[in-house]
Write a structure and sequence with these properties.
Elements lengths: L5 E7 L5 H15 L6 E6 L8 H11 L4 E5 L3 E3 L3 E2 L4 E7 L4 E3 L9 E6 L6 H4 L4 E6 L11 E3 L2 E2 L4 E7 L1 E8 L2 E3 L4 E7 L2 E5 L2 E2 H8 L2 H4 L9 E6 L3 H4 L5 E10 L4 E4 L8 E7 L1 H19 L5 E6 L5 H4 L4 H9 L5 E4 L4 E5 L2 E5 L3 E8 L1
Parallel strand pairs: 2-3, 8-9, 22-23
Antiparallel strand pairs: 1-6, 2-6, 3-10, 4-5, 4-23, 7-12, 8-12, 9-24, 10-11, 13-26, 14-21, 15-16, 15-21, 16-17, 16-20, 18-19, 18-21, 19-20, 22-26, 24-25
Helix pairs in contact: 1-2, 7-9
Length: 365
């Protein structure tokens, strides 16, 4: 049986050399038993961000094709391992009938691979009526260089997209939080401040919901706490993943209010949640199975885009998202990077997530 004409390669070392991009592509070609590729997905670590063009050209030469698409990121990954601390390159090559088509992305029922810089994302681009999967370029200090490219050229507007032609897809999202309350009606708001939830001050509701080991801490760990705004039936919204996260900016003990990153309206349903590694691990396991059932057959390649805050440091120096995906599909190549925001579906639309992992599973048509 001939191998699937899709594979990954990974190369890293002490210096940011173009040889890593070339080596990653050549590894992938050898695994896929290809002499050349239709297209290449190339991710580079932040050390390349100021001038990624030489590495992109090296990848194009090695692959024998001009369609090289990708991004710089704080960390890169394949089914082999993740790289966060060393300069390097990860590549996926596409052969056979599968390719990345940069025009009319997603218009034929394809998944639209979507990559952008923090400045390149816009509401119009995100809201296009196509199924987007991707992430925002990231770096290790959050204010450095960012770059995305397609057709082996840097995108000056900071956004690229391509349809994944020749493959069926299933795209799912793991938000991986631990719900502390049920969805509660927002009773009173003032701008971005949530004053009352139900009959009680918002801060009181949050404090009363904290686990004992957290509530006893001298300072409430607001960096781990998040609000979730539900859609549709609130009784099943959390279990079915029908919610968007809304981040806590500040709390006022004087009036019991909590300031969120996005304004809410009275009558919306809000629940308090906490970032938790065990909950994220359980959620990812369920997301993998949901994506598999949605695809309806064994996947032949995958894309994985976790948040920079949901990586080895979050899981205790192991990336449990990668581990679980590799354990469930041990022969499946996959590639991705740690994003500064993750792009995926939410209630028939596209959404910019945080602290999440976007998973795409694909099989050949």
């Amino acid at each position: 049986m001939s191998p699937v004409p899709i594979a990954t390669g990974l190369s890293y070392g002490m210096q940011a050399s173009t040889s890593h991009a070339e080596a990653a592509v050549k590894q992938a070609l050898a695994k896929a038993e290809l002499s050349r590729a239709n297209s290449v997905l190339l991710f580079l670590t932040p050390q390349y961000a100021s001038d990624p063009t030489p590495a992109i050209r090296a990848a194009a030469r090695a692959a024998g094709c001009i369609q090289v698409m990708g991004s710089t990121a704080s960390g890169i990954l394949t089914e082999q391992e993740w790289v966060l601390d060393s300069p390097g390159a990860a590549a996926m090559v596409f052969g056979g009938d599968v390719t990345l088509t940069p025009t009319q992305a997603g218009q034929r029922g394809e998944a639209a691979l979507s990559l952008c810089t923090p400045k390149g994302i816009s509401a119009d681009w995100l809201d296009a009526p196509i199924c987007r999967i991707g992430a925002v370029s990231s770096d290790t200090v959050a204010h450095g260089h960012y770059a995305v490219w397609s057709n082996s050229r840097i995108a000056t507007d900071g956004a690229v997209e391509a349809g994944i032609t020749g493959a069926h897809h299933a795209v799912t999202v793991s938000q991986g939080i631990r719900a502390l309350t049920a969805p509660i009606e927002v009773a009173e708001v003032q701008g971005y401040e949530i004053l009352r939830m139900g009959s009680y001050p918002a801060l009181n509701v949050l404090v009363q919901s904290l686990p004992p080991n957290v509530g006893d801490m001298e300072q409430i760990p607001f960096h781990l706490l998040i609000g979730g705004v539900t859609f549709g039936n609130p009784d099943t919204a959390i279990t079915e993943g029908r919610y968007r996260l809304n981040y806590i900016i500040a709390a006022d003990p004087q009036n019991g209010s909590i300031t969120l990153a996005q304004a809410l309206n009275p009558g919306e349903r809000l629940f308090w949640a906490m970032r938790d590694a065990l909950a994220a691990e359980r959620d990812m396991r369920q997301v993998i199975e949901t994506s598999y059932k949605s695809l309806g057959t064994e996947p032949q390649f995958g894309l994985l885009f976790p948040c920079t805050a949901r990586g080895p440091s979050f899981f205790g120096n192991r990336d449990r998202d990668i581990d679980q995906l590799r354990q469930r599909f041990p022969d499946m190549p996959f590639i991705g990077f740690y994003g500064n925001g993750e792009i995926g579906p939410l209630e028939e639309e596209n959404h910019l997530y945080q602290f999440s992992s976007i998973l795409g599973l694909f099989n050949l048509e």
